[in-house]
Give the backbone structure.
Amino acid sequence: MRDNGTDAMQYDLKHKGRLAQLWIYLQKFLRMFVYQNDWKVLPMGAAIAALVTYVIGANLFVTQEGTAMGCFAIVCVCIWNGFFNSIQVVCRERNIVKREHRAGLHMSSYIAAQMIYQFMLCTAQTVITLLICKASKVSIPVQGVVTPWGIVDMGITLLLITFAADVMSLMVSCIVRSTTTAMTVMPFLLIFQLVFSGSFFNLSGFANRITVFTISRWGIGSLTAIGRYNELPMVTLWNTIYKFKNMEVLGGKPILDILRMVEDGGHKEEFLLWAGQVNANSMYASTVENVLHNWGMLVLFICIFAVAAVLALEFVDKDKR
């Protein structure tokens, strides 16, 4: 005997348009947020963001080294949040989606509802991350590059990174057929994003060209540009020279003498800024064009992953398992 609720749902789907179906499923996902504990992704993301900002927050947007490492870490947080938000959301109800597709469900409506719901989650996570950065006294740039406010530019970037990772994992969840497979694939996707970010590891040749296909590369490029990486001091050169201050040459310590002369003359900050200029990277240029280009690439990824997710689910009826 068929379940009356299932019959009613199938009848509704057959007689509902795409927009109506979108609203039905968006309401369903919001109920799941409350009653199936999907809200737990918010405190989990907050805990990870707090841990990262506690470790790297002091030097973020203060020195080039601190900015490079801090931006890499924050991008890791955003990608992790995005992956964890949606990696299981479709495959865990694959049989239900298959049955409702046969009853008239438009996959474009289903994915659109998922994306709206996931966008709401990503927005909440972005706001939480920014609040944690403020509480940790991270030196968020006051002046923005695209907008007049640095925190707004940073917020848009964090949201795009998180949402791009979220839609990517949503696509994976549409392709795989079980939650076990989804959770097995997720670490490999995360490692790929981190290794080929083009920032933390020195890549060359073909490996460097792969970076254009990663969310992390464009996310880091945007954050460093907003943080004015090329205008910050570089301390590595000074610290490296300082390690050799006691080296003796012909009975003297010329390196120590030079360091003292620079410090006594009040030229240390000038030296650090000069070192930063020498170490400038065109990928991190603080221009409107550069930041918008990075944002545009993240939006492009979102669109590609969304289309791929819809196409993957269109073949759900062929799934014999």
Residues 107-135 form the longest helix (29 residues). Residues 66 and 150 are 18 Å apart (CA to CA). The radius of gyration is 24 Å. Residues 1-9 have pLDDT under 50 and may be disordered.
